[in-house]
Design a protein that fits this description.
With 206 residues, the protein is an alpha/beta fold. Helices cover 33% and strands 32% of the residues. The chain contains 9 helices and 11 strands. The strands form 2 sheets. It has a 6-stranded mixed sheet with strand order 2-3-1-4-11-5. It has a 5-stranded mixed sheet with strand order 8-7-9-6-10. The protein is elongated.
Length: 206
Amino acid sequence: MLNMALPKGRLGDKVFSMLERAGYGGARLAENSRCLVVEDEVSEVRYFLVKPSDVAIYVLHGAADVGVVGKDILLETTPDVYELLDLNIGICRMVVAGREGFTPSRRVLRVATKYPNIAKNYYDAQNKEIELIALNGSIELAPIVGLSDVIVDIVETGSTLQANQLVVLEEIMPISARLISNIASYKFKNAAIQQLKKALAREVTV
């Protein structure tokens, strides 16, 4: 069987629907979403339902042959895997956000984020010196209480920023879900992986 790691949550729901349309048992996945392992004997695929940030880890170490993961996670953790297809779902933006009209008043910019590597690479490219403040949640609070000048985070609709009187100051890059493959699996299970890739590619809408 082809082992596939899928994210739980909102992104997972979109992936399930896409798999269903592609003929890969997405309906049963949605129905059995409390199970961590679901087998589709017809398409010969075994699905692992995991935390979104863990998908790439399962694929990297070969526990899963393929997986679906956000581009943000790939950029942040840089796992040694193959990126096969942009699924054009889970679309959002990686941005710099802060108070409207913010202008830096100090030489070193304080940046709060869950994505320290992405933030560092972005500001390094601008030769901008920053102080990174790593947070795991409630990122929007940081500039409100003076912990940071700005935040680097993912924005989908912008409603959370708006609710906290913050605005997008700079857009770093667009983000979407990607189909990835373990390097060894891509060689030894290439036929099955290519079949899955082609089936999903037909369901991608631009």
